[in-house]
Write a structure and sequence with these properties.
By secondary structure, this protein is mainly alpha-helical. The chain has one domain: Glycerol uptake facilitator protein. Helices cover 71% and strands 0% of the residues. It has ten helices and no strands. The longest helix is centred in the middle third of the chain and has 26 residues. The two termini are 28 Å apart. The mean pLDDT is 93.
C-alpha cells in the first residue's frame, strides 16, 4: 500500500508540474522572440503528463492521480473505501508539493506576482477566462469529469486495450482541456485545483468548492453507471 501511495503522490505532482506548469510558465504572453504554448500546448501538456505517469507509475497504483477518478473506481466496485481514503490524501499532498515547486520556479522571474499572474488556479465568472457563469462551470466540471472517468473505467476494465490505456486517457484529458480552458481552466480533478489555490488565495479559495464538489459528483456518477453495467463490456 505504501508503494501505491508514493506512486499517487509522485504522479499527481507530475500532473501539476507538467500541466499547470505549462500554463504558468509557457502559456502566457512570451517575451519577443520566444514561443508561447497557447491553449493547445497547455492541453497537450496535461495529456502528456497523464501518459507519462500512467506508463511510469500505473503498474504500481493504477495512476489515478485524481480523487474524482478514485471515487469513480470506488463506486464502480473496484476499490475499497480505506484504499480510496489513502489515495485521496496522497493525491492532494502531491498536488500541493507540485504547486509549491511550481511557485518556487515562477518566483524566479523578477516581475512575477502570484496576485496578478496567478498559479494556474481554476475559476469562473467575471475576470477569469472567458467570464463563464457558475452554472456553466458546474455543468462543465460534472459532465466532463463523468466523461473522463467513464473513459478510464472503460480502457482499464475487461476488454480494454490495456497497453494503450495511458494514451487513451491522456488524449481524453487533452481534449477536455481544449474545450474547457476558457470556461474554468479545467479541473476535473479536486487535487489539481487544491494545490494552486492554496498558494493563490482569495477567489481561488472561495471558488474552490466548485472544483471539489463538481468533479466528485461526475466521478461518482461515472462509477455508478459503470457498476450498473451500462458502460462496461461484461
Amino acid at each position: 500500500m505504501s508503494k501505491k501511495l508514493i506512486a499517487e503522490f509522485l504522479g499527481t505532482a507530475i500532473l501539476v508540474l507538467f500541466g499547470v506548469g505549462t500554463a504558468v510558465i509557457a502559456g502566457a504572453a512570451a517575451p519577443e522572440g520566444m514561443p508561447s504554448a497557447g491553449l493547445t500546448g497547455i492541453s497537450l501538456a496535461f495529456g502528456i503528463s497523464i501518459v507519462a505517469a500512467a506508463y511510469g507509475l500505473g503498474a504500481i497504483s493504477g495512476a489515478h492521480l485524481n480523487p474524482a477518478v478514485s471515487l469513480g473506481v470506488l463506486t464502480a466496485g473496484r476499490m475499497e473505501a480505506k484504499e480510496f481514503a489513502g489515495y485521496v490524501v496522497a493525491q492532494v499532498l502531491g498536488a500541493i508539493v507540485g504547486a509549491g515547486i511550481l511557485y518556487a520556479l515562477a518566483t524566479g522571474k523578477a516581475d512575477y506576482s502570484v496576485a496578478t499572474s496567478g498559479l494556474g488556479q481554476n475559476g469562473y465568472g467575471a475576470g477569469y477566462g472567458g467570464g463563464y457563469s457558475l452554472t456553466a462551470a458546474l455543468i462543465f466540471e460534472v459532465v466532463f469529469t463523468f466523461i473522463f472517468v467513464t473513459v478510464i473505467l472503460g480502457v482499464t476494465g475487461k476488454g480494454g486495450a490495456a497497453g494503450f490505456a495511458g494514451l487513451a486517457i491522456g488524449l481524453t484529458l487533452a481534449g477536455i482541456h481544449l474545450v474547457g480552458i476558457r470556461i474554468t481552466g479545467v479541473s476535473v480533478n479536486p487535487a489539481r485545483s487544491i494545490g494552486p489555490a492554496l498558494f493563490v488565495g482569495g477567489a481561488a479559495i472561495s471558488q474552490l468548492w466548485v472544483f471539489i464538489l463538481a468533479p466528485l459528483v461526475g466521478g461518482a456518477l461515472a462509477g455508478l453507471v459503470n457498476a450498473a453495467g451500462l458502460t462496461r463490456a461484461d
